[in-house]
Amino acid sequence: MKDLSSLRIYRLAVEIGDIVWHIVEGWDNFSKWTIGKQLVDSSDGIAATMIEGYYRNSKGDQRKFFRYAL
Fold it and tell me: What is the C-alpha separation between 37 and 29, in angstroms, rounded?
């Protein structure tokens, strides 16, 4: 099986997480701890969900997690 980091879509998901992190980093504290935390968690969750699905044994599970990542 190919390493997940070699897939372009996974690298884009990681890049989205990094971009969101840097945007939220510049916000005031109240904004960071209310909407910012949720935004960072959800954008990081895209790549995390892809990882979880990628290493599932059945194709059905993989598709389900990739759908969640979308």
Answer: 10
